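Example 3.2
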Amino acid sequence: MVSLKFPVNTPTEREKLFIHLYKKAFPATARYVSKKGGSFDEAKDIFQDALVIYYEKLTGSSFVLSVDESSYILGIAKHLWAKRFREDIRYTPLDPYNSEFIEYENKQPSTPMLLHYLETAGQKCMDILKAFYYDKLPVATIARLFGYSTVHSATVQKYKCLEKVRETVKEKSLAYEDFIE
């Protein structure tokens, strides 16, 4: 059990306690918050919240401190920082991300450019992909039309055609934005 050096009966004694704890425990909290990507102001906020929690525990009737007070306050600060970090992630607004989608919403991909990359897979692949995606034919019909013995064979061929196009796009390091007119 660690006992405090100051009695905390008067406002002056409380002020001395807080100044003592601030000098002793704040640097470690500031380092921790900084390592976790927080700012100095966030470290101050977290530390002050931790200090209030510590003081409330301290004034409680059955509180027994089994570690150094600065370690205890740092532990509280770590929990508060983890809680704040989880809440910030959960409530991150989507506005910055949403603007990217709105930007492309009214723009159509360039048809000539798309056709160019589809043609790199070959005419048979173009015909299979057109039948599946444009004509919306069932795979069983595509298998019969293109002479595949099973539906699985047609599915595998369609997949291979898509992979040819993906490889070409990957080789050229193209992104979605490159296809927008």
